[in-house]
């Protein structure tokens, strides 16, 4: 993969030009210095050759040798000659030693001459070169100094001009760096001064087209999920999604709950008399009422099961709560005025049945249909419950839940279990998912899916999350640096200012390597619902070095734009999508859609609830990066 250079183009050019100019100046100086040295040496040699020629001519005169001491010392003293000796083959005719101070013996010039007219005579001369005594003179070097000043000023001006001309190129380069860093949205439009302008305009156009393509991809993915799992008229789940969730629920041995089926009587006759638009308005009104009523229970699924039937899946709730809910629901629906030929006192009927882990989905739907028919036989708007010998009912009111949860938090918090998340590439442990459990008075271990709704109802969400995170931080400090842990956190806590402040202060006390091993899980449905409120908090957590996981993805049908908005690190699929995925093409389509939504981001998809090799092979083929489930390891208490 190519990497962008860290050195700016302007800096490169400026460095290149400056280096060239400095090298040129150095070459000129070195050449001038060598030339100056050579000229000084040649001048000295030429002068001494003249002195030797005069001596040779004087020695030709019979009285010349006696006259040398009279005039030669003065000449030599003025010529910076240190010593001069004249020797013949027998004796020394003349010896001169000057009084000059030699600055450096290494620069003294030595030479020996043979007199042409007197073959037996030798003249040995040592002299100080002309350049050795020269010092800098402003007057003598003014031309060179002025030239150097002009060159330096020209270089400064040229560099400034070059930077000005290439400022647009720097802007374009900086924009490219920001885009490579992932800040495409902030730098989608370029500056007017960017250069080359054609490259800037082309980048603007490509980013615009990429943005449109991403939005279209997101809309297309949402369209696929919507048409696969949602009813187009009411916006609720369709029969495919409802059956999938129910099947996944009953395969969990610890699950329990109820299925509520509401049916409208005389539907076909009403459609024939009033028209489809009136019938659709009635369905939409009923859908609004049902959607508002199911908000009280978490993880509830509302579906338009048939044309005139609505099905509601309510998990982990006792029969007492289901009865109250059904009675209130019937009263709310009865307030509507059905169009004729529907009878006002006999137009809606409700059937209820209960289930627990191990029941067959088909049998559950038969039971709720039987209960509904019994309600229809009463001849009035009513509801009826299917009688089962092994009806699941663990009634625990809010007072008992509050007592149990308060006792758990007072005694140090819930029990923590861990389950490894296995990477698909090499099946090594990527991290550990922490699962909260509580123990009741009988010593039974209760899963989070059973008590988290009660925690919210009694108002203990913030206390519970605080206890779990406190244990997790202690665990991070004690465990090996190779272990990372993912912990669930509710949006209720993330919207509490005191909790957010406490969490921030606790995280700031930990070093960066420890924070990099901490992952926070937030439910997708609650995240999308409160995205504007908790977005700043999530950015603080990721800014400190923690990673973000969006869990239960696919439990509800929402737009996946939040993946890029909050820059999630991992997306955990809802276990209902993973259960028997090798037999459900619609679930495979949903997973492909989720993988496509994560393609242009750093988010990776993790499967949850993998229990068979067939499921794992299909998930690997689809492209998930990791998985969590009992196929790899069961939950282990820490």
From TrEMBL:
SUPFAM superfamilies: EAL domain-like, Nucleotide cyclase. Residues 255-388 form the GGDEF domain. Signal peptide: none annotated. The keyword Membrane applies. Residues 398-638 form the EAL domain. SMART domains: EAL, GGDEF. Keywords: Membrane, Transmembrane, Transmembrane helix. This is RNase E specificity factor CsrD. It comes from Photobacterium carnosum.
């Amino acid at each position: 993969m190519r990497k962008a250079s860290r050195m700016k183009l302007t800096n490169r050019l400026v460095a290149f030009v400056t280096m060239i100019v400095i090298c040129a100046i150095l070459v000129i100086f070195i050449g001038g210095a060598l030339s100056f040295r050579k000229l000084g040496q040649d001048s000295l040699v030429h002068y001494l050759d003249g002195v030797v020629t005069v001596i040779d001519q004087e020695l030709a005169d019979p009285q010349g040798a006696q006259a040398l001491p009279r005039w030669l010392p003065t000449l030599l003293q003025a010529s910076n000659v240190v010593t001069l000796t004249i020797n013949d083959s027998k004796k020394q005719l003349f010896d001169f030693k000057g009084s000059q101070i030699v600055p450096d013996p290494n620069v003294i010039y030595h030479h020996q001459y043979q007199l042409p007219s007197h073959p037996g005579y030798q003249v040995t001369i040592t002299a100080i070169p002309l350049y050795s005594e020269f010092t800098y003179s402003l007057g003598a070097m003014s031309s060179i100094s002025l030239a150097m000043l002009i060159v330096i000023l020209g270089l400064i001006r040229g560099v400034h001009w070059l930077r000005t001309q290439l400022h647009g190129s720097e802007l374009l380069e900086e924009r490219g760096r920001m885009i490579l860093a992932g800040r495409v949205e902030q730098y989608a439009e370029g500056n007017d001064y960017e250069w080359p302008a054609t490259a800037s305009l082309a980048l603007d156009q490509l980013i615009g087209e990429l943005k449109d393509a991403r939005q279209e991809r997101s809309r297309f993915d949402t369209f696929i999920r919507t048409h696969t799992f949602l009813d187009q008229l009411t916006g609720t789940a369709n029969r495919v999604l409802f059956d999938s969730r129910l099947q996944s629920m009953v395969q969990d041995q610890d699950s329990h709950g109820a299925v509520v089926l509401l049916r409208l009587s005389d539907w076909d006759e009403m459609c024939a008399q009033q028209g489809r638009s009136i019938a659709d308005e009635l369905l939409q009104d009923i859908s609004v009422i049902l959607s508002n009523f199911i908000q009280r229970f978490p993880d509830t699924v509302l579906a338009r099961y048939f044309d005139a039937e609505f099905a509601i899946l309510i998990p982990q709730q006792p029969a007492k709560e289901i009865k109250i809910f059904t009675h209130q629901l019937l009263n709310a629906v009865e307030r509507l005025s059905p169009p004729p030929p529907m009878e006002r006192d006999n137009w809606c009927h409700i059937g209820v049945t209960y289930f627990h882990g191990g029941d067959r989905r088909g049998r559950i739907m038969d039971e709720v249909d039987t209960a509904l028919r019994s309600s229809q036989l009463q001849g009035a708007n009513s509801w009826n419950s299917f009688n089962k010998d092994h009806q699941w009912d663990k009634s625990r009111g809010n007072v008992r839940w509050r007592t149990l949860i308060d006792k758990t938090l007072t005694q140090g918090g819930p029990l923590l279990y861990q389950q490894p998340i296995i990477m698909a590439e090499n099946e090594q442990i990527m991290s550990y998912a922490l699962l909260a459990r509580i123990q009741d008075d009988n010593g039974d271990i209760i899963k989070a899916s059973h008590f988290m709704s009660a925690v919210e109802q009694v108002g203990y969400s913030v206390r519970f999350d605080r206890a779990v995170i406190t244990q997790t931080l202690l665990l991070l400090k004690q465990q090996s640096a190779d272990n990372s842990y993912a912990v669930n956190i509710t949006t209720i806590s993330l919207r509490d200012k005191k909790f957010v402040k406490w969490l921030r202060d606790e995280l700031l006390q930990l070093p960066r390597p420890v924070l990099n091993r901490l992952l926070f899980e937030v439910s997708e449905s609650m995240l999308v619902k409160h995205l504007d409120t908790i977005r700043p908090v999530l950015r603080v957590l990721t800014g400190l070095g923690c990673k973000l996981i969006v869990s239960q993805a696919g439990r509800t049908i929402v737009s996946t734009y939040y993946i890029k908005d909050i820059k999630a690190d991992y997306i955990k699929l809802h276990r209902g999508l993973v259960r028997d995925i090798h037999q459900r093409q619609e679930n495979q389509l949903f997973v492909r859609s989720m993988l496509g939504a994560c393609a242009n981001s750093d988010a990776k998809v993790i499967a949850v609830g993998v229990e068979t090799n067939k499921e794992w092979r299909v998930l690997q083929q689809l492209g998930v990066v990791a998985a969590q489930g009992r196929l790899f390891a069961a939950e282990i208490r820490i």
